[in-house]
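TASK: fixed-backbone design
INPUT:
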């Protein structure tokens, strides 16, 4: 045929075959080279895949629910998004952990609607539905570390009193994500007895609290305990002392709407008296509520509580002269729970030893918490050549300092989150010190009679922060040291359910405990 060139066609076919052979040779070389990395230990860092990595090209055949969902923002759309996000999360991190995603995770029974669990031999306040997503239980070798807290909590559930919790920690709680989740869950479940303690100002960024409005105005100098910035060691209950030389002010306001935080019945100022002390003018809802004269012959700590009728309120502080303040405690008529979130960015457990022991003990004693929570370890993991004998001894001293002001309270240590670093293969791995810190905390907690919650293992253990970073929705930030707000909410929900499970077990083995009857009985 006139339009064809047989010779040219044969040449093209030969070239095509040669190209395929060359590609096959190249592919075989790559496969052989990759295979050798599994035979030669020294080449481990070059292995293209190891157990624990995602399956090759996983993203080509998995659907990202968090990006594939759209909605109009209605309540039903929000519920659908939440459910689809949990489905997506369950694929990567497991169904139990995914059940803790979102503020609605689990089922709370408000105090007014609480029913006894007929399936238990001893009536219980806790429904099995409330423990869906229980990832890990609280460890308590003594079997009684949380007794004081549970007695207080049962009294709150029975409508008799207020239960207070004090939680000291590092950046994990500074933005009130973990503690805010715990506060919401506990107060929705057992009653809202007020927001708790807050600093006068921002403290260490990004310090903030949820379900409360607050603003600091004017010139204030802040001195932080973690930096040992005061010679006298007086940093107050929250670890930061604030000084103004005139004109400094601040205000606190209940939120207009929300599950908690809409009412208050008292505002208590934590202050320091001293020879050059000035005045603190107080106001509630724009009306004068008294003046604190902080001038005194010697340095001393003081407290002034303003009682009001329970409801929505704004509390103002305005200063004259040199005034030193620690913070304000906001409460509401009980019964219920108060949760003090005392976060200090960059803190280590040892830094609480910078506080004057007698001063700090008096601050804790005044607040009279029923549960003392100590949550550090994330910042210590980067210390070079860490001596774990010294670490254990410092942790013992810190527990003693915290417990000194409230020796009858329960105590609980929370292990740090997983902390990731880039390994020699370019992949994210757990920092080597983290499992050792967790084990040291477990041992010291048992020794001191404290409960222990293994946050690291609850997240998934080794390499969990890398998995949290890759998850959809994302639970970990790219620094591999901090969780996202959604991740912190998951952690808060896991701790809450662990507390609820231990409380349920305590009720079952405490026949002398009075349990409120079911509604309608």
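OUTPUT:
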């Amino acid at each position: 045929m006139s339009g064809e060139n047989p010779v040219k066609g044969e040449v093209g076919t030969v070239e095509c075959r040669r190209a395929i052979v060359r590609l096959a040779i190249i592919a075989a070389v790559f496969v052989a080279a990759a295979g050798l990395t599994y035979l030669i230990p020294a080449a481990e860092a070059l292995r293209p895949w190891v157990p624990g990595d995602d399956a090759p090209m996983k993203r080509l055949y998995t659907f990202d629910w968090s990006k594939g969902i759209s909605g109009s923002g209605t309540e039903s759309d929000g519920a659908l998004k939440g459910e689809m996000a949990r489905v997506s999360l369950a694929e990567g991190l497991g169904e139990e952990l995914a059940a803790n995603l979102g503020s609605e995770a689990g089922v709370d029974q408000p105090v007014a609607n609480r029913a006894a669990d007929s399936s238990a031999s001893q009536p219980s306040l806790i429904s099995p539905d409330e423990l869906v997503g229980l990832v890990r239980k609280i460890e308590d070798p003594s079997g009684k570390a949380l007794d004081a807290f549970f007695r207080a909590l049962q009294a709150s559930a029975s409508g008799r009193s207020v239960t207070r919790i004090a939680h000291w920690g590092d950046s994990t709680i500074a933005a009130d994500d973990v503690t805010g989740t715990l506060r919401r869950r506990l107060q929705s479940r057992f009653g809202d007895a007020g927001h708790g303690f807050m600093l006068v100002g921002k403290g260490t960024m990004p310090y903030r609290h949820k379900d409360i409005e607050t603003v600091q105005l004017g010139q204030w100098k802040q001195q932080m305990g973690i930096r040992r910035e005061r010679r006298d060691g007086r940093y107050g209950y929250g670890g930061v002392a604030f000084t103004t030389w005139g004109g400094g002010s601040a205000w606190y306001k209940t939120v207009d709407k929300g599950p908690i935080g809409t009412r208050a019945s008292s505002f208590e100022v934590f202050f320091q008296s001293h020879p050059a002390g000035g005045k603190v003018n107080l106001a509630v809802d724009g009306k004068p509520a008294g003046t604190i004269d902080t001038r005194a012959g010697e340095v001393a700590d003081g407290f002034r509580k303003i009682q009001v009728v329970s409801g929505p309120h704004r509390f103002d502080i305005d200063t004259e002269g040199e005034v030193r303040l620690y913070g304000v405690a906001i409460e509401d008529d009980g019964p219920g729970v108060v949760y003090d979130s005392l976060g200090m960015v960059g803190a280590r457990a040892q830094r609480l030893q910078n506080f004057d022991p007698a001063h700090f003990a008096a601050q804790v004693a005044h607040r009279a918490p029923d549960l003392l929570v100590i949550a550090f370890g994330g910042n210590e993991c980067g210390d070079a050549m860490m001596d774990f004998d010294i670490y254990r001894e410092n942790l013992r001293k810190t527990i003693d300092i915290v417990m000194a002001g409230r020796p009858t309270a329960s105590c609980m240590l929370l292990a740090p989150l997983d902390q990731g670093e880039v390994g020699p293969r370019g992949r994210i791995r757990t920092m080597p010190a983290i499992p050792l810190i967790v084990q040291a905390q477990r041992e010291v907690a048992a020794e001191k009679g404290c409960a222990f919650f293994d946050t690291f293992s609850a997240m998934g253990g080794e390499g969990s922060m890398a998995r949290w970073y890759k998850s959809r929705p994302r639970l970990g930030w790219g620094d591999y040291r901090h969780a996202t707000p959604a991740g912190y909410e998951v952690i808060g929900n896991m701790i809450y359910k662990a507390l609820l499970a231990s409380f349920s077990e305590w009720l079952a083995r405490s026949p002398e405990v009075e349990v409120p009857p079911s509604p309608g009985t």
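COMMENT: The first strand starts at residue 162 and ends at 169.
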